[in-house]
Structure formats: structure tokens, C-alpha cells
Amino acid sequence: MKEIIRAAVAILIICGVLFYVNNQLDKSSGRSGSDTISVYNWGEYIDPELVERFEEETGITVVYETFDSNEAMMTKIEQGGTSYDVAMPSEYAIEKMKENDLLIPIDHSKVPNLSNIDPYFLDLPFDPGNEYSIPYFWGTVGIAFNPKLLDGQTFESWEDLWDPSLKQEVILVDGAREVMGMGLNTLGYSLNTKDEQQLQEATDKLKTLSPNIKAIIGDEIVETMRRSEAAVALVWSGQAADIMYVNEDIDYAVPKEGSNLWFDNMIIPKTAANVEGAHKFINFMLDPEVAAQNADYVGYSTPNEQAIELMDPEVTGDERFYPTEEMRERLEVYKNLGLETLGKYNELFLEFKMDAQ
Amino acid sequence: MNRSSKLSKVYLALVFIILYTPIFYLIFYSFNSGGTMSSFKSFSLEHYKAVFADTRLIMILINTIIIALLSALISTAIGVIGAIGIVYLKNRKSRNALLSLNNVLIVSPDVIIGASFLILFTMVGVKLGFASVLISHIAFSVPIVVIMVLPKLQEMSSTLIDAALDLGASKREVLSRVIIPYIKPGIFAGFFLALTYSLDDFAVTFFVTGNGFTTLSVEIYSMARAGITLTINALSGLLFIVTLLLVLGYYFVTNRTKNPLRTGVPK
Fold first, then answer.
1. CA contacts within 13 A on the Cβ side of A43
2. Does residue B11 register a pLDDT over 50?
3. Where in chain A are the domains?
4. What span, in angstroms and rounded, lies between the C-alpha atoms of B122 and A5?
5. Residues in B touching A28 (Cβ below 8 Å)
6. Can you cite an annotated GO cellular component (chain A) (predicted)?
């Protein structure tokens, strides 16, 4: 009995010491101020130095937390019990959150740096007038390929994926809208179409791709391409940048028929406790110098016009990640299709997947 | 005979190799000076430095350990009391019912436990954070402790208690001087098992973390989404060492408690 009590006391003492150490760490990193905001972002999606700089400049302490999917984030916010002040969801998630009344409108007078954003990225269909959201990063959907494993093929057109020489070489991202969008784009249709005839045609077209398909997977695409285990993949430009960062052989192309333009955006959830601080944080992230440093660290494309001026022209001049205006015209942002049409997309995508196996 | 024992040794070695290779592969690459797991360039400790330079990560590590220690301690206390209560229940039916209820908690999926805790906490209005994680960890550890302590209690002869009572021990003394010392190995086993369960739990914790409080497994999961960086390898390596120390600690503690018993009760 004595021994057990001794052990229990020892554990409590260890816990006490650890608590103390944690508190000291907390203080030394300047996270103990009374004015705090909590930021909820994707993993590895901000330069940590910038968070520190924001804390120094404003005296606001940032509690930083990460999520791994739009769905996980929405659940946490919807359930309450947390008070995130700023979050960075993708555009389709913003539409859903708007419908569910989970957002606080952004006061544009408190975000003067909004003028730094390229007007091309403002006032988009998922959030007219940017009432609730400010673009954070953006990108496209395209084809990542490894020229070393191919003999001189290029991917100017989606049709090139159907080339018989690519047998069992193509990886697709496991997303209904991305893959169906690819099918629709190949045929020259809009990737927001509600026309059942067009959707059916796209599905039939996709089915003829089956012999070339190696796999339909999620985040593993990045590792697979890095290790040169597959020659071609349908990916988001962000993933392509991640792949190319490690494997320099890889190239990326957005086919000429058009593709999807996607956004991650800063929003203020309904549960926010420090709306004032949240505005300050958003404004800070829109500062040209800050946005440039962040884009440099994360490796995604920034919508900040002024920041692009400050960045390495070799990066921003790369038309694969900063497409020219002419190329941009062919890009489409996903529109909310409504439950019924979205169900149709999912159903047809499933049909295609069954066929591919 | 000789041949079959050799074969069984080879088999055993093979199983251990299969179980341990992934872990050592991961730890091996944590010393890679290159940025990926595709090729080993040269030995370097830079990824470990990166872990220690990141105060946020260190704080998460410490939080994880605090949660594990506290939840294991509290659930051991509750579990031991519960196990004693269950064993000395007079009514066989309700005893079996209680035991089954306990076992249901062990086999029910973590995801369901996590989701139901999330709903409960938000309904009651508990803020997600340290308290919510601690409470849910205690909750899923208690049944494990009960299971570890029960066999010890069942193998204990009831004559021991009768003898103690005959010799004038009060009920409290019976508990603290007879029952608890006898089941001590079970208590320690329960504690360490609860500790490891709490350390590596992902599913339940994933649901109940919030407001800037996370544990290591949840954080690693979020980090891994952006591609596995070798910092994760280094962190996992550290965690592996902590677990190893725990197992060693468990080994020494149980050995120490076994010895006096062995000399005291001749077989």
C-alpha cells in the first residue's frame, strides 16, 4: 500500500513539474497575453515566423491549431465548444458554412490591405462581394508528369491522357468533382454543368480511360510521384508544387481545354471570441511583404498582387503556377451545384471507379 | 525435437523482424540529412534539432505526457475500486451484468466513443481542451484497468480475508494490508497499460481536442497531410524511446514486487 501511495505521489510531482515547464515555455514564447486569437489552419500552411511577428507587432497572442480536412474543421466549428477566430477553408466549404450560418461577415473597413489582392480573385461566385471570405492561396487542377518515365510526351490537352502508351501509368486524385471535371473539360463542357446528357457523355469518355489508370488515391499521390513510381497524375497545383520541391524531374501542366480554379480563404467563424483580433490577423496576412514571405514558405500561389512584385520573378513568372490572364480565362471556379446534382456527380464518379477496377 | 525448436526460433525471429522493421526504418531515416525517405544521404541530427527548436511541438509533447500520466493515475484509482466492487458483489447476475458492461466499453470502436464524447461535451457546455481530453482518456482507460486487476482479485483465496478478520483486522485494514498488496502487480500492469493507451490514442482524442490543445498523435496526423517530413520521423523516434523507457520501468517495478512475494510464499 505504501509503495502504491509513493508511486502515486511521484507521478503527481512529475505532472506538477511538467505543468510548470509547460507554463514557462508558454510564457517564453509570449503566449500568455490576455489578448488572444485562435487560428485554425491546414497543417504546414503558414510560415511560423510570421505568427511570431504578428504577436510581436500587435501584442495579440496566437493560439495555432491545425486541421486535415474541410469536413473535420466544419464539424468542430458547428459543434461549438471551441472559439476559433480565423480559419482557412476551401471555397466549397465556405458555401456550406454560409448556408449553415456559421460565418461572421468581414468588415472591409478593418481590412485595408484587401486592396493588395488581384481583383481577378475577388467577388467570386462562392462569396459575392467577399462578404465572408478573403482569398489566402489559390491554384489549379492539372497534370503532374515525369518526363524521365515518358518518351517526350507533353500534356497540352486532356486528350493526351488517353494516349495508348500510358497503359497503367495514370494516377487520379480521388475526388468526384476533380475527375468528373476532367471528363467534362476534355469534351469542352463546363465543369459546373447540370446537364445530364453532358454528364453521361463525360462518364462514358472517362470509362475509356480505364486501361491507362494505375490508381485512384488521395494524399498518397504526392509520395508516389516523388518516388517516380508513376509517370502521370491528376493533381492540385499545390500538390504538384510539393512533389516538384522534392523531385525536380517532375513537370506540371494545365491543359488547354480549361480546368478548375480553387481557393483557400480566410474566414471568421460564428464561434469567434475576438472578432477585432481576427480582422487584425487577416489584414496582417494581406500585407505584401508578409504574403510574399508566406508564399515563399508554403510554395502555393498567392493572390496578392503587391506581394508578387516582391517575390522572386523566377517563381512568379512560372506560368505553370501563375498562369497568364489568357490562360486564366479558361479556368472555372466550382459552383455550388446543390445536393441533387452533386449526388449525380458522386454517383457517376462511383460508376466510373467501379468500371476502372 | 531439436529441429522443430530451431524452426520455432526462426519463426519467432521472423515475426519480430516483421513487427519491428517499419519502426526502425522510420527511426533510421530520422537521421537522414536529406529531406526525404527515398535516399539516405548522410548522418545528421538536424531533424531532432528542429523538433527541439519548435516550442509548440515540445509543449504538445509535454501535454501528451501529462495527460497520459494523470489519466492513467486517476483511471487506475477508479478501476481498482471498481474491480474490488465487482468481485465482492453478492449477486452473481448483477456481477456478470457489470462485467459485460465493462467489456462492451473495451470492444466498442474508439471513433464512436470519441464522437459521443464530443456531442456530450458540447451539449453540457464543457470547453474542448485539457479537461475534455483528460476526462475522455480516463473514461476509456477505466475498463482496461478493471480487466487487468480482476484476475488477481479472483485468484486471491477468500480465506486470506477471513484469516485477517479473525486476527482482528478492521475492514479498512483488510483492504489496505491484505487485498491491495496482493493485487499490486495487477494495479501496476493496469496503470502501465492505461498509460500506453492514452499515449497513443488518436481516434477519441481527435474528437475532443480544441482551443489550441492537441496531443502528439493528432498533431502528427495533421502534419502528415502535407507530406511526411522527417521531423515526424524524429518525433516518432523520441516517442518510441519514451515508450521503451516505460516498458523497462514496468519490467523493473513488477520484478521488484514479485521477489518479496516469492520469498514469502514458498511454492
1. 19
2. yes
3. 2-137+267-316, 139-261+327-356
4. 35
5. 55
6. periplasmic space
